[in-house]
Structure prediction request, 349 residues.
Amino acid sequence: MFRLFGRKRSRESVKERLKLVLSYDRAKLSPGRMEQLKQELMVVIVKYFPAAEKDYDVRLEQHGDRMVFTADLPLSSADA
Amino acid sequence: MNARAIVVTSGKGGVGKTTTTANVGAALARQGERVCVIDTDVGLRNLDVVMGLEGRVVFDLIDVFEGRCRLRQALVKDKRVDSLHLLPASQTNDKSSLSEARMQETVRRLVEEEGFDRVLIDSPAGIESGFQTAASAADGAMVVVNPEVSSVRDADRIIGLLEAREIQDVRLVVNRIRPEMVKRGDMLEVEDVLEILGIKLIGIVPEDERILVSTNVGSPAALEENSRNGAGGAFRDIAKRVRGEDVPYAQLTVPGGFLTGLRRLFGGS
Prediction:
C-alpha cells in the first residue's frame, strides 16, 4: 500500500483505485453503505451459521456488462 | 462513424473538449466535408477564440433560439477553410430559451436545410442541463478523457448518461498522453483507460505544447500540415476515422526510444 507514495509504478495504483471507485459509482452505493450492508448481512448469517467468521469479504465485481455483488464467507468446521 | 451530429463531451472541465472540437472540425472540413461546429457552453463562449473567429461573431445560438436572427445569419464562416462554419454560444448567461427541442430542431435544419455533412457539438462541462441539451441533438459522441483519475471517473459517468440517451456511437479520445510518463509507469496507458471504461477508441492525442501556441494565435493545429507527429496529426487521424477510414494508431515517441505496445495493441483494428 505504501508503495503508493513512492516513485514506483503509480500506474498500477491509479488503475486499481479507479476500478474500485467505479464499481461503487456504477452500483450507486457508497463504500460506507457497503460496510453497513455487510454488518446487517452478518446478523442474518449467524442465525444460520453461528460460528461464521465475522471478518468475511463482500465486494462488487464487474462481470462483462453487469455488476455483481459477491460475498465470500468461509464456514468454520463447527458449522460445515 | 455513421453519426452526423456528434457531441464532444467529458464531464470534467479542462480536458480538451473545445480543442478537440476545433481541431477535428477543422480537419474534417479540410478533408472535404461541410462542417458546422456548435458551441453550447452558454455564458462561457470559447470555441470562437480557439478557432480565431471571435472578431466575426454577430449573432449566437440564443439569438437563433429566440428568433432574433435567421439560422444562416448566426453562422460564422471560417477564414481558412471555406466549408467550416461556427455557430457560437452567447456570452450572456441567459439559459431560459435553451431547450432540447430547440437544439434538436437547429441541428436538424443545419443538416437538412443548410446541407452540412457533419455537426460537432461542443458540450459544456458537467452532467447538468447544459450537457443534456447538447447531447439531445446528437446521434454520436466523442468522450474526451485525460489519463488521470478524476477525468476517467467523470468520463464513466458521462458514458452512462450517453447510454441512457441511447446514443449508439460513443467513442473515446484519450487526450494529453505523455509518453515519457507512460514509459516509466507513472501514467495510465491507453489500454488501461479502454479496459476501465469499456468503449471503443477513436483517437490518442499526445500532450503537445504546440496546442497552446495554436490557441494563442487562434489557428487549429490540425491545419498545420507539418505537425505530423504531434497533437495536430493525431486530430487529423481522428477526423479520418470519423469519416470511416481505417487509420493505424501512430507510435508515440519518447526521447531515447519508442513506445512499442501501442502498435501491438491497436495495429490490427
Summary: The radius of gyration of chain A is 16 Å. Strands of chain A lie at 57-63, 66-72. The mean pLDDT of chain A is 82. The interface with chain B takes residues 7-12, 14-15, 17-19, 21-22, 25-26 of chain A (CB under 8 Å).
